[in-house]
TrEMBL record:
This is Gll3982 protein. Pfam families: DUF433. It comes from the Bacteria. It comes from Gloeobacter violaceus (strain ATCC 29082 / PCC 7421). Signal peptide: none annotated.
Amino acid sequence: MSMQTVIGMLREEVSAKLATHPPTAELIVQDPKLLFGKPTVFGTRLSVELLLEGLAGGRTPEQLMRSYPTLYPEGLEAAIAFAEGLPAMHPLAGLLAQYRALCR
């Protein structure tokens, strides 16, 4: 199966999930069998931490999506929304703050 086929199937699955569960928070999953239970974007092996580190390091959302073909815009938005809901002292909230500072 080609990567394009896999990505197409993922996008269809994400669209169906968003149609039945509109909040993007549904796109962040925690599975103890995947990346030791770190929060990840649904359908990918990309952790919220990895994505926020990229953004805080100066990478743009477009650069991240080019680097990670399975990443989709709603998934990145969900990662950011997930971090917004964390206490300010949480390390992921700190990465989000760094990213927001870069955007100013």
